[in-house]
Write a structure and sequence with these properties.
alpha/beta, Rossmann fold, 9 strands, EC 6.3.5.2, nucleotide-binding, ligase, ATP-binding
Length: about 180
């Protein structure tokens, strides 16, 4: 079985994403966000767009959305997804760093098994302000209106929080669910 690729967008938690997947016995490899899309398409069964400081340092990561593979965008990965598909981001009114209670508005395969409210760990200043056409807003919080979104037809999923850190309650479930999506 092909691995998942974790795209390094220069964020503080990208290596932790990789480590979490490997600790879960999910085969995963980290790649640069400058890896040619054709190479990515041949080498994996799903993509995790990790976090990072700015869209300007996202390399060619937005091109990976067009490969027909399932994609999970985390933090900056969500922003890459939103802007590449016609949405918008902005500086959040308060930003988020620390524990946040997220409310799930709509269940889907990525969020399967989670309760309607859950504690997550946030570490961001920007947020999605306009959800792209074809996407559904799945979750929000008091500090961020779009905590999760998805385009089910394209198998594109984005979350603002960090499931890879221990402060997110049951964060590994999200990776299990994404691995299942990539194995379908």
């Amino acid at each position: 079985m092909l691995p998942l690729y974790v795209v390094n967008n220069h964020g503080q938690f990208n290596h932790l994403i990789l480590r979490t997947l490997r600790d879960m016995d999910i085969e995963a490899t980290m790649i640069s966000n400058e890896t040619p899309p054709a190479e990515v398409a041949r080498g994996c069964r799903g993509i995790v767009l990790g976090g990072g400081p700015t869209l300007e340092r996202a390399g060619v990561a937005s091109a990976y959305l067009d490969l027909g593979l399932p994609v999970l965008g985390i933090c900056l990965g969500l922003h890459i997804m939103a802007t590449a598909r016609g949405g918008a981001i902005r500086r959040g009114a308060s930003g988020g760093f620390g524990a946040v209670e997220v409310e799930i508005f709509e269940q889907n395969p990525l969020l399967r098994g989670y309760p309607d409210r859950m504690q997550v760990w946030a570490s961001h200043a920007d947020e999605v302000s306009v959800v792209p056409e074809g996407f559904v807003r799945l979750a929000g919080s008091s500090i961020c209106g779009v905590e999760a979104m998805a385009s089910p037809d394209e198998h594109l999923y984005g979350i603002q929080w960090h499931p890879e850190v221990s402060h997110t309650v049951n964060g590994r479930l999200l990776f299990e669910n994404f691995d299942g999506i990539c194995s379908e």
